Amino acid sequence: MLSRPAVSVSASSSAATDASPSLFPLNTSQFSCQANSKVLRFLGNKKLPSLNCRTIGWRRSSSQPKSGSMESFTARATAQPLKNANELIDSVETFIFDCDGVIWKGDKLIDGVPETLDMLRSRGKRLVFVTNNSTKSRKQYGKKFETLGLNVSEEEIFASSFAAAAYLKSINFPKDKKVYVIGEDGILKELELAGFQYLGGPEDGGKKIELKPGFLMEHDKDVGAVVVGFDRYFNYYKVQYGTLCIRENPGCLFIATNRDAVTHLTDAQEWAGGGSMVGALCGSTQREPQVVGKPSTFMMDYLANKFGILKSQICMVGDRLDTDILFGQNGGCKTLLALSGVTSLSMLQNPNNSIQPDFYTNKISDFLTLKAAAV
Ligand SMILES: [Mg+2]
Fold it and tell me: Which reaction does it catalyse (predicted)?
């Protein structure tokens, strides 16, 4: 039996189970339904068909766990080494793979990945690739897969840049409003594909503030959402512009592609991640964002809805505990930690670590050998 029950429940969840139909059934255990007057004013006080508590529940109350933090309410049994890959493969319909540290490391494919993906496809499994990296669009990621010799279609790729645009679509974000972007090209490309107007992004990378007496920065009053992702050209101009939009434009949304503390720009050290840019805006606005990337359940809900799959029929495979594994657990999926990325066995087994996947293995190509051994 692969699905191991949680061993104890330490806190109650306030998860709402609204039975009304919704295209994007967001989990309101993470985000409260504060359809405040500003949001309704921004949406013109219209009762939109898909506008319900869940889809506009972007604002988290202070009593709820921080998105991006360890928000699982259950203490899980200790992770087990994967011994019978066949059993795991047979028990699910879909594998969701994180990319960096699972499929590739930087620009290098991890050993055995093509054969493993081929084997899973030959057994009729749906494969989905999810990344918190918002610097590229789905199309740009498609090229990376192609360059690495992997046959993956754009429809199988879900980056947090895409999630930001999908989220705005899910709440019927008005097309006459604009999105201010703190982030890189991937977010702009996805917003464009979704038909949204935007400003900011790389073109604000070189802008400076000239602080002379009486200087006042103007901002576009039609900005209805600020999307913040990883941005190598982050600067004070962007912080101030985004802050003005969020603080002064009625109902302006604050959306984060992810809150990752660190990222891996080079293999020599860890670098400040998207969470550092998001944190700056949290500090200046005193607001918490709607996170659309991992470990928020938005993308999982979106995927389950798009493909019509039960979350219990999904196995999330990743190399990070606080994003990938938590993402799978928050979504109610099976989870497998690959030790081919940032998490070592000693980190997993550290007594201070409370995030325990169902299984762990060295790399996903273990599916091939463990499969053979199990037959
Ligand atoms: Mg990773």
Answer: 2-phosphoglycolate + H2O = glycolate + phosphate
Cα separation, 153 vs 360, whole angstroms = 27
In this predicted model, what pLDDT tens digit does every residue of 212-240 receive, in sequence order? 999 999 999 999 999 999 999 999 999 99
Active-site positions?
Answer: 93
Ligand 1 centroid from CA 318, angstroms: 6
Q: Which two tokens stand for residue 119?
A: 């084997």
> Is the separation of the CB atoms in 227 and 164 below 8 Å?
yes
The pTM score is 0.78
Q: Which residues of 64-100 are buried (b: 16+ CB within 10 A; e: fewer)?
A: eeebbeebbbeebeebeebeebeebbeebebbbbbbb
- Print the SS3 string covering 88-147: HHHHCCEEEEECECCCEECCEECCCHHHHHHHHHHCCCEEEEEECCCCCCHHHHHHHHHH
Distances (CA, A) of 79 to 212, 305, 371: 58, 28, 19
CA of residue 263 to ligand 1 center, whole Å: 9
Cα separation, 182 vs 352, in Å, equals 34
Bridge partners for 315 per DSSP: 95, 334
Residue the block writes with tokens 């053979």: 372
Cα dihedral 23/143/192/171 (nearest 10): 20
Determine the distance separating the centroid of ligand 1 and the alpha carbon of 324, expressed in angstroms: 7
Write the pLDDT tens digit of every residue in 26-38. 333 333 223 333 3
Classify strands 197-200 and 178-182 as parallel, antiparallel or unpaired. parallel
Q: Residue 346, class by beta-carbon neighbours within 10 Å (0-12 exposed, 13-18 middle, 19+ buried)?
A: exposed
Q: Would the pLDDT of 56 be above 90?
A: no
